[in-house]
Amino acid sequence: MNDCTGRMSRTLHPRARRAAAWVAAAALLAVCGGAASRMAPAPPRLGSASTGDADLAAQVREAAGDGRGYRGISVVVVDEGALRLAGLGDSGNPAHRQVDSSTVFEAGSVGKPMTGMLLADLADRGTLDLGTPLEQLLPGSRFADTAVAGATLEDLATHRAGLEKMPSDLGTATRTLRLRLLGQDPYQGLGEEEVLAAAGTSSARTPGTYAYSNLGMTLAGYAAARRTGRPYGELLATRLFAPLGMSDSRIVRRGDPEPPRTARGQQATGPATDHWYASGYTPAGDVWTTGRDLGRFLYGVMRGTAPGARAAVPTHDAGPQGRTGLGWVTTTLDGHAVTWHSGATGGFTSYIAFDRETGRGVAVLSNTDRPVDAIGQRLLGLSATGPPSAGTGHAPGTALATLAAPLPLLVTGLVPGFPGARRRVLAGIHALFAAAALWLTWRLGDWLSLPPALWTAGAAVMLSGLLFAVGRTGRRCTHTEGAMARTTARTTAGAACRAVAVWAGGLAALLAHQL
User: Rounded distance, CA 435 to CA 441, Å?
Assistant: First the structure.
């Protein structure tokens, strides 16, 4: 026998109670939905503001499609020796919202071609020999693998030393989690000595075969710097930036004052990210630069007047990528040999490319992590890759976690028969699971493919379930001893199953993002 009653049962007809309950539930859901909507993911969209060349800005907008996942874009096109510059959208910097050719962006791995050119310039000056093995350039370092010790500067700068992208003993997985879950700089706390020590224990997996490696390019940059006796950043500034007039390009260290027109980075799905400052991997890409400076850089490379410009000449096979020079890659697109490199940090992306045949070049900088390669390719007149696609491809995991998260809590709040103490315990467990899963999807979810309203609905259901559960804890329920045992068994088993379902959804979201 089961008898659960409340005060309302003595004063209202059952139909009236049910109607009142539905009205209360609808009102509660509306209130919770309003509260949840203020916390929902907010993917950026390219704003309407434009600066510079209006025709070029219009071409960028067309290439960017609906603009979802972008916030601000700076672009420069080199055509017949002339520079065309345009800025679009919002920099995220409250003091300088408008994006123009002087807005500073993180360029990420676009710094690799710069390191390659630095090596070529030093070799041309006779300062170093690209065929010198690493063990001779870094005599104070010890390498466990003789293949790594024997890798030359040319091997490292053309990604043919066989090194992994990142050494695993530097906590790569943990650092990736910090980036994805918290938006933090994954290289924070890593210095030159830590990277060199990690290189000492690394092994060459496929020497002589193209394998993209941040570690390899970093070692090449540090080896060159040590041969000259000058820090890498100083070498880059004096040998490359100064001759090309790149006055707004620099290596920014943590604690240094930021350039006043620095853009703020953001994930394409909404969350903000920290800046990536100079680290132990600086030669692989820690440059901050502007559209105007990249235009000068590109112009010098295309004309062959930039220091070390020969680094862009393809010299070795790079597998599906095409061919590689020192830090540069040359790929055939639409029948054109396009020399290029892209870059990405936690909240920025970049792309620089030129076509020797047409004499046209392009550089694109963005302050979200949505790639800009396709925009740059379309500005070069290429159509093979088509317009940039929206979404990250992780919609199923996002939807599963978002929709599954609040259901156990809602069931706990709505289904009668739970004694007050047990309901409170179950509600607490399911609220914790639901909040964790919803936070994961807020941070990692594919909100370019799915409407953020889906997250709002999930959060509203969670809040409603929590309030329903709290509202029912004051009810008094009496059970026979056998009924109590059966109820306990059912609720315990149900709680376990629902918890597994919720965490399965959260793990699906994590796995979908390859964390």
Answer: 10
Beta bridge partners of 266: 272, 368
Structure-token pair, residue 253:
């260290």
- Residues belonging to the chain: 515
- Report the distance separating Cα 24 and Cα 1, nearest Å: 29
In three-state secondary structure terms, 504 is helix
Nearest by Cα to 128 from 255, 28, 228, 16: 228
- The label of the residue with tokens 């997250």 reads 455
Enter the DSSP assignment of 266.
B
d(CA 167, CA 263): 30
Helices (H), 5-63: 14-37, 54-63
Report CA-CA distances (Å) from 44 to 168, 332, 438: 33, 33, 20
> What is the C-alpha separation between 377 and 353, in angstroms, rounded?
8
Using DSSP bridges, classify how beta strands 2-5 and 336-344 pair: parallel, antiparallel or unpaired: unpaired
For the packed helices 395-404 and 420-444, what is the interaxial angle rounded to 10 degrees?
A: 160
Residues of the chain under the 50 pLDDT cut: 1-10, 384, 386-387, 475-479, 481, 484, 509-515
**Angle at 292 (CA atoms; ends 214, 91), nearest 5 degrees:** 80
Beta strands, E only, 90-235: 105-106
pLDDT given for residue 18 in this prediction: 55
What type of residue sits at position 467?
A: L
Which residues face 339 on adjacent strands? 330, 354
Predicted pLDDT of residue 436: 85
Distance CA 374, CA 19 (A): 55
Token pair listed for 417: 């028969």
Which helix (H) or strand (E) element contains residue 273?
none
Q: Which residue has the tokens 């690799």?
A: 112
Cβ 350 vs Cβ 108: under 8 Å: yes
Count CB-CB contacts under 10 A for residue 303.
12
Q: How far apart are CA 183 and CA 199, in angstroms?
A: 26
The DSSP bridge pattern shows strands 50-52 and 316-317 to be: unpaired
Q: In sequence order, what DSSP letters do the residues of 306-373 get, joined into one string? A: STTGGGGS--EE-GGG-EE-SS-EEEEETTEEEEEEEEE-SS-EEEEEEETTTTEEEEEEESBSS--H
Structure tokens at 491: 């609720």
pLDDT tens-digit map of 115-125: 999 999 999 99
**Can you give the pLDDT at residue 3?**
47
Q: Which of 513, 267, 269, 265 is nearest to 391 (CA)?
A: 269
Rounded distance between C-alpha atoms, residue 287 and residue 111, angstroms: 6
Question: What token pair was written down for 381?
Answer: 């007149």
Alpha carbons 506 and 168: distance in angstroms, whole number: 25
